[in-house]
Every structure is written in C-alpha cells, then in structure tokens.
C-alpha cells in the first residue's frame, strides 16, 4: 500500500521553476527525509514522485498512471504540492466524507503551527487521474497572494522562496503523509 507525495520538476520556459514547482518537489523530498531521519517506519510505503511534463499537459503523470493503475486499490492517498510553498494554512482534500473526517482529525496535530484547515477540493494536474478514479487526494493550501507575481515568469527564482515558510510546508507534508501511512486502515473510499 502506498502514500504518494509529489511535486513536479519541470518549469515554464522563461523561469527557473523554483516556486513552480521546485518548492513542491522539495517539500515532498524533505517529508520523506525527515521521516527517515526520525527513524520512523510507517506501515505503508511512502513514495516520492517528482513529476515531469506537468507544464506540457501532464504527460509524465499520465504515463505513471498508466503504468500503476492496475494497483489503484493499493494507493491510500495521492498528495501534490503545486501552488507554491508560501505560508501554509491547510490542505485541499478530495475523497469520501469519512476520509475527510479522518484528515480533519490529522490536521488537528498541526495546531501548534496554526495549519489546521481542510478545503474542498484537492487540486493537482499530476494527481487528477487518481482522484477521478476514487483515490483520496490532497494538495497543499497556502497563501497564494503573491503566487501570480512570479508564476511562469523570469521572477520564479530561489529568491522567491522563504526558508521558514518552506519548513512549515514540509512539516504539514511530513505529518499528514506519515500519519496516513501509519494508520491501521487505509482511508475510506
């Protein structure tokens, strides 16, 4: 059984892609790195996917889906961060009402950093195939008030990234992915 965390590596033609979507790729990598460094061993596999071809119509995600859809019942949740890594506020979530209740309970663990909201729905080009077929999905929800200042522009460089905000985003990704991967049962479909 798999809990998938992800971001995409490709950027728009004029930018470096630090925000769109280097930040999402980084926090996904960092989540798994933190879990490993803490010596935690969840019941399910945590899988990092660094998508490619998202900016060209999601061709990498489509191919991954085609290669793995026969095991769709083993995918517990698919998570994608693709709207920057600014100050987080919670998760976008798509799934059953029962699964949403579980996710809301998990988000209470993030009260110390004030990131507890669950929004409807999850969003992500790279996880859309999975969600369409009933796999619960989550996307990072953060303050995107400055996102379109840099989105698909020459300004999308590392200077956009705030290390403290990225650490908070990585904390959200780490807690949510680990708890779901270590629960006794998969999220209800």
TrEMBL record:
<dbReference type="GO" id="GO:0004180">
    <property type="term" value="F:carboxypeptidase activity"/>
</dbReference>
<dbReference type="InterPro" id="IPR007484">
    <property type="entry name" value="Peptidase_M28"/>
</dbReference>
<keyword id="KW-0121">Carboxypeptidase</keyword>
<keyword id="KW-0256">Endoplasmic reticulum</keyword>
<dbReference type="GO" id="GO:0005764">
    <property type="term" value="C:lysosome"/>
</dbReference>
<comment type="subunit">
    <text>Homodimer. The monomeric form is inactive while the homodimer is active.</text>
</comment>
<dbReference type="GO" id="GO:0043171">
    <property type="term" value="P:peptide catabolic process"/>
</dbReference>
<feature type="domain" description="Peptidase M28">
    <location>
        <begin position="1"/>
        <end position="173"/>
    </location>
</feature>
<comment type="similarity">
    <text>Belongs to the peptidase M28 family.</text>
</comment>
<dbReference type="GO" id="GO:0046872">
    <property type="term" value="F:metal ion binding"/>
</dbReference>
<keyword id="KW-0333">Golgi apparatus</keyword>
<dbReference type="GO" id="GO:0005794">
    <property type="term" value="C:Golgi apparatus"/>
</dbReference>
<keyword id="KW-0325">Glycoprotein</keyword>
<protein>
    <recommendedName>
        <fullName>Carboxypeptidase Q</fullName>
    </recommendedName>
</protein>
<keyword id="KW-0862">Zinc</keyword>
<dbReference type="GO" id="GO:0006508">
    <property type="term" value="P:proteolysis"/>
</dbReference>
<dbReference type="GO" id="GO:0005615">
    <property type="term" value="C:extracellular space"/>
</dbReference>
<keyword id="KW-0479">Metal-binding</keyword>
<dbReference type="InterPro" id="IPR039866">
    <property type="entry name" value="CPQ"/>
</dbReference>
<dbReference type="GO" id="GO:0006590">
    <property type="term" value="P:thyroid hormone generation"/>
</dbReference>
<keyword id="KW-0378">Hydrolase</keyword>
<keyword id="KW-0482">Metalloprotease</keyword>
<keyword id="KW-0732">Signal</keyword>
<keyword id="KW-0458">Lysosome</keyword>
<keyword id="KW-0645">Protease</keyword>
<dbReference type="GO" id="GO:0070573">
    <property type="term" value="F:metallodipeptidase activity"/>
</dbReference>
<dbReference type="Pfam" id="PF04389">
    <property type="entry name" value="Peptidase_M28"/>
</dbReference>
<keyword id="KW-0865">Zymogen</keyword>
<dbReference type="GO" id="GO:0005783">
    <property type="term" value="C:endoplasmic reticulum"/>
</dbReference>
<keyword id="KW-0964">Secreted</keyword>
């Amino acid at each position: 059984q798999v809990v998938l965390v992800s971001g995409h590596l490709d950027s728009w033609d004029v930018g470096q892609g630090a925000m769109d979507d280097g930040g999402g790729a980084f926090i996904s990598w960092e989540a798994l790195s933190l879990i490993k460094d803490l010596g935690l061993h969840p019941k399910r596999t945590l899988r990092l996917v660094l998508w490619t071809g998202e900016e060209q119509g999601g061709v990498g995600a489509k191919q991954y889906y085609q290669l793995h859809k026969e095991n769709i019942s083993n995918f517990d949740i698919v998570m994608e961060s693709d709207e920057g890594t600014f100050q987080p506020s919670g998760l976008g979530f798509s799934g059953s009402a029962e699964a949403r209740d579980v996710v809301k309970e998990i988000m209470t663990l993030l009260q110390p950093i004030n990131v507890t909201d669950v929004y409807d729905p999850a969003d992500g080009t790279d996880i859309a195939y999975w969600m369409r077929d009933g796999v619960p999905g989550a996307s990072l929800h953060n303050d995107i008030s400055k996102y379109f200042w840099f989105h698909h522009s020459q300004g999308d460089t590392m200077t956009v990234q705030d290390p403290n905000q990225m650490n908070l985003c990585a904390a959200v990704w780490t807690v949510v992915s680990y708890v779901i991967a270590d629960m006794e049962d998969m999220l209800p479909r």
